[in-house]
Amino acid sequence: MSYQAEISRANPSCFIFLIDQSGSMSDSFGGGESAKRKADSVADAINRLIQNLVIKCAKSDGVRDFYNVGVIGYGVTVGTGFSGALAGSSLSPISLIANSPLRIEERTKKVDDGAGGLIDQTIKFPIWFDPIANGGTPMCQALSEAKNIVQEWLSQHPSCFPPIVINITDGEATDGNPMESANAIKSLGSSDGNVLLFNVHLSAQKSSPIEFPDNENNLPDEFAKLLFQMSSNLPTHIQNAAKQEGYQVSEASRGFVFNADIVSVIRFLDIGTRPSNLR
Amino acid sequence: MNAKFNHFYSQKSGNDIKDYEDAYSPKIDGSINTSYFCCAIADGAAESSFASDWAKMLTRSFVKEPYKDLETLKIKSDTLGQRWRKVVQRRPLPWFAEEKVQFGAFATLLGLEISSSLNSHHSSGEWSAIAIGDSCLFQIRNSEIITAFPVATSDEFNNSPILLSSNSVKNISVWDKVLLKKGNWETGDTIFLMTDAIANWFLSQHEQNEHPWENIIGFTENDGTKYSFEYWINSLRSNSQIKNDDVTILSIKF
User: Fold this and answer.
1) Nearest by CB to A104, which of B45, B95, B168?
2) The domain A13-99+125-268 is classified under which CATH number: 3.40.50.150, 1.10.1200.10, 3.40.50.410, 3.30.300.30?
3) C-beta atoms surrounding B153 within 10 Å
4) Which of A237, B78, B152, B200 is the most buried (most CB within 10 A)?
5) Are B211 and B157 spatial neighbours (Cβ–Cβ below 8 Å)?
6) For the whole prediction, is pTM greater than 0.80?
């Protein structure tokens, strides 16, 4: 059975995030009426993904290194997306990332007040990435770079839970067809299964969000269809966790979302008992 | 009653004892000569922070003053939740720990009250139990499981049970899942309380017509068996017979 390996400090896994920082990311997000640019959505998405991964690994004694994390930005150049204390390494332990945000902002979120209403709660929102929109979209090169990092990780951690690569993009590669590079990453694996490649498509199109589709029929454009085809099938335990949260998924569902949030994938990762009333 | 009480625990393989997030009460081993006795176990959820503090508070509080009904449990868990928050916020916390405190800590709770019948010369009596989550009670009589509560078959275990939270808002969906059970005991019976990993193994073995209680009773009959218990649990873990998780067992042999 694949995707069963325990994720622990003794047997950590790894995450690689690819973030599209090309010039087209300065276009507005989701239909042109929003003041929000795609680059803002990408920065929000990557900051929230890392925040949630840190929180998942946080225990009373600090953040446990269940994961090593790398971020590759692609636009004018292709290279590590982190700056400051994290700039020198292709992968960093999650505890180091937790303690090295660029700054911590305060935001408000609506939370259940326990009496059927919602109240504002101030939360700390760490920022590791600011929006960037400049240059072309060398997605193939970014995927190749991710493959090299994953390959090195797997040579040192041959029994780990398979690494997960999440690509956040508006879908328009400018250096060729990324399918071949995607397949090359997915062909790598540990003794527990193949590397998982998930894609987040943030589009300027005004279209309803789509999460974990099992076919491409309703996807709005050729770029969405290509990213869907590049994406791995959701492993069974992720399908089950998604179903438990009310997502409509099937055995054919893929790790692909269109104009939607993929933070739920972090919740679906199994590092031990997760209360069903923790939402 | 004249009973023998034993406790056994083992932290998840690869973890330090300070990482053990189950809890049990009371912390005693040996004979019980009393007409009334209480004990409890709790299993702090790995995905919450400060879960071991919460699990300890729940078990100690239950043994001190057992919850007889749902209303008492609601009131008590609110009070304990506020106390938990004060304890964990005694010192400044980094951003990620603050966020975890907002979510609250989560744990199972299985509490057991036992009393003797006055007219039985203390050779029989009643018990009542309260359960939230998947920590289990098994009662053995004449080499049979006569009670399995609240989980009856091994396929009922999953990785995301409903748990009692220190954050009262998260308990709204819990209250209609709280289970209460009453029963009788006789001299010769054994009652076990177990956290989920070993309880899952226990039921699986029983479903294969084995007598898993014999393994555990063996550890209660000799002193100085804590190391052999640890060795046995680690062998179950390394053979993938149980998942790598904290293990806690309380045993009451009447």
Assistant:
1) B95
2) 3.40.50.410
3) 12
4) B200
5) no
6) yes
